[in-house]
Each structure stands twice: as structure tokens, then as C-alpha cells.
Description:
By secondary structure, the protein is mainly alpha-helical. The chain has 2 helices and no strands. The protein is rod-shaped.
Amino acid sequence: MSKSRSRRKSTRAERPQVETSFVDHSHNIATCQRILRSLTGAMIGAFVLIVVLTTFSVGEPVQIIGRGLYFIILASVVVSLVVWAVRVRFEREMGKNTHVAAEVLK
């Protein structure tokens, strides 16, 4: 009698996990997209600031700020690649077709 009760409990617990994982992947993919858009904006903004600052001056403070902005661009690129790889993994787990460029991760 105790075996049948434990079986019933386990099947009830498994059903929501399957549904939840599908929803979580959709949410995670959307979050990855938001992160990628934000990082793209940060890269473009940093690049524009570097161009504007060096147009008006090449002094020591501008060089320091420009170097910092350059490292922001590099960090954004690395984080973007990692987030992109995670997003592709989520899409594959959901069974979605990924872009041809994602075939690199096989």
C-alpha cells in the first residue's frame, strides 16, 4: 500500500517539472536576447565615446578613459559570445532549429 502512494506522489511531482522547464527555457532565451541587446548598445556607445573624446583631445585623461572604454568593448564581446552559446544551447534543448552559424558549437 505504501508503494502505490509513493508512485502517485512521484508522478504528480514530475508533471509540473516538464512543463516548467519548457517555460523556463523560453524565459531564459528572452533574457539572453535582452542581455545581448544591452551589450550591443554598450559596445556601440563605448565606441562612439572613444571617437568623440579622441576627436577633441588626446590628453592623458582622454587616453585613460579611452583605454577603459576599450576594455568595456572587449568584455562585452566576450560576455556576448558566452550568452550567445548559452542561448543556442537552450534553443537546442527546446528542439528549435538554430541558425547555421550555431553549428560551430557541435
